[in-house]
From TrEMBL:
Sequence intervals crossing the membrane: 12-31, 431-449
Keywords attached to this entry: Glycoprotein, Membrane, Signal, Transmembrane, Transmembrane helix
Source organism (scientific name): Cinnamomum micranthum f. kanehirae
Domain of life of the source: Eukaryota
Keyword Lyase applies: no
InterPro entries per the UniProt record, alphabetical: CBM2/CBM3_carb-bd_dom_sf, COB_C, COBRA_pln
Listed GO CC annotations: plasma membrane
Protein name, per record: COBRA-like protein
GO-annotated molecular function: carbohydrate binding
The UniProt record lists the keyword Transcription: no
GO biological process: cellulose microfibril organization; plant-type cell wall cellulose biosynthetic process
Entry's family note: Belongs to the COBRA family.
COBRA C-terminal domain: residues covered: 229-420
Amino acid sequence: MGRYRRKPTFHLSFYDLLVYLFFLVIIQFSAADAYDPMDPKGNITVKWDIVEWHDDTYTAEVTIFNFQLYRHVEMPGWRFGWAWKGKEVIWKMWGAEATEQGNCSMFSGGNIPHCCERKPVIIDLLSGTAYKDQYYNCCKGGVLSSITQDPSKFASSFKLVVGNAHITNNALIPPENFTLGVPGYTCGPAYVVPPSRYSDDGGRRWQQALATWSLTCSYSQFMASRSPRCCVSMSSFYNSTIVPCPLCSCSCQGLDSAAKCVKPDQLPTNLQMPNSDGTPNPVVMCTRHMCPIHVHWHVKVSYKKYWRVKVTVTNLNYAKNFSEWNLVVQHPNLQSVEQVFSFNYKPLHQYGSINDSGMFWGIKFYNDMLLHAGKLGNAQTEILLRKDPGIFTFNQGWAFPRRISFNGDDCVMPPPDTYPMLPNGSPTCHLAPHFIYFASCLFFFFFLVL
């Protein structure tokens, strides 16, 4: 008789499981972070126009464009930097200034350059700057709005005169190693592009730059923050269950994390302990999810032809106010939005006729400032949507969003099978909220697929 061959078994320790899940998460972030399907063409583009050139001195107009649909640059603003290839200096600037003058001892007399640093860092001027030092699109403290939220403030410009220019084969050589100075952004090299054209008389006569360089800076949420910054909870009128944010969505209490935890009945201290980039260190309210921003989606009521949703955004960060904040939601019924109350709204048509995502933001001087943690630290809206025949349903969690982001960063969503179900629904599986159990289920599901 042939010997029976047993099917091989696998013995996996708890430590091996955690290591495997760690690499799985890293792979997921690496693949997803390089491309944003909600904003496939979004980037920050810097254009460097040479408008005058005499011997080794040239004048350039530099413009920073934020071509992202919903991600903006907030305070403390951009800090645009680069490395000169030669011994260039900046003689004068309008609309911006260098953070350091550097060593200009090789220049004598009263003609001293504005900056002699080999790696200058340029910052925008503040509002109220003297008119003689201004330049168009300047003086906003480095803040750039997204192109959707405020098209009048999505660009920033400055002008500079460069001396000791690096010239090769009768061509100016651009700087290298560009940085934007905003967490999460990586800039590529500058390339020669067709010269920019501009008109001073309404299009009757066109002029063009002597040469134009262009470079692109792209965003990575994982590079900006190793942990998420917001989470989503859910509830509905047809189910008494309130689905909370997943446990430890952004960090865990008691762990050595960057966020300091303050209990609701305590007064936080040392709020303005800034990070190396100048941003306040998070001081968040103690919660099970430990996220600075909490978004709650509540299916409020159902009418014959419409249904209504209430969305609440709560700031649990004691150390920071969010100005000109925005919320991006992906849901198939957003193609049938009838009315949005107390928020601005605009659909994002990033894929032509597909209209399943939209951007919400506060109304100017009303709720565009999301205040720090406290009684006033939230903003609310209600959305009235039409029930599309053949599409709309309350079954299987369809009424809840597929994806939500706050200020361009994806929020942690609850597992789909935990969404509030209809009373007559009978979900086949319900994951336990504990992270370890959920991680184990995820691993064995992935193993079976392989």
